[in-house]
Design brief:
Length: 202
């Protein structure tokens, strides 16, 4: 595993996307433990995309316009749903102390769905992972699995870091309802923008 792969992966994981925004929102609203559940869900949501790229299914997604469009608009609808959920008083940015296991489970499942319903993630892995395979070096599939596992581990660690930083600001937000309202609208707007951006993708 090359340092080029690790550095490139780190930059990709750091870039704000749906998973980062979701983990930050959960960290601000529910605290550190919930943000770990969000990070775990987002990381687990990478598995279908990684498996698809390794098995070559992402190539079919790339060539089948209908399949891509169906998955894309499911993802768009879910992003809009997340925007609406954040705007609700008891939604993803709820600052109550309710940290029941069922709530944590829902946080993780939502994070998983954010990545599962993003067809661009499979295409990203199809284009990204093969660049770091050495031609003629043993089993390519096994190497791809190792790269995907490293990418997922890095995603989890970085997202937990994002969640920890967000949870530190939670008490500040609880004491300032106007700031909380601003963050609700900002995160909802971010999810809405990502939904529009995904809808316009080809």
């Amino acid at each position: 595993m090359s340092w080029e792969f690790l550095l490139t992966s780190f930059i990709v994981v750091l870039l704000p996307g749906t998973g980062v925004i979701y983990t930050l929102a959960v960290g601000l609203g529910r605290g550190f433990r919930a943000s770990v559940a969000a990070a775990l869900g987002c990381t687990f949501g990478i598995v279908p995309a990684a498996v698809a790229s390794i098995l070559g299914l992402a190539a079919l997604l790339h060539t089948s316009a209908l399949m891509f469009q169906v998955l894309k608009y499911l993802g768009v609808l879910y992003l809009f749903y997340m925007a609406w959920s954040i705007l609700r008083e008891n939604g993803a940015l709820d600052v109550s102390d309710n940290t029941a296991k069922a709530g944590m489970w829902r946080v993780a499942v939502r994070g998983t769905l954010l990545n599962v319903l993003n067809p661009k993630l499979s295409l990203f892995f199809l284009a990204f992972l093969p660049q770091f395979i050495t031609p003629g070096a043993g089993d390519a599939a096994l190497s791809l699995v190792g790269l995907a596992a490293a990418f997922m581990l890095m995603t989890f660690v970085v997202f937990v870091g994002y969640g920890a930083c967000a949870s530190l600001a939670r008490d500040y937000m609880i004491r300032r309802p106007s700031v909380l309202r601003w963050f609700r609208h900002a995160f909802a707007g971010a999810f809405g923008f990502l939904g529009i951006k995904l809808a316009s993708s080809e």
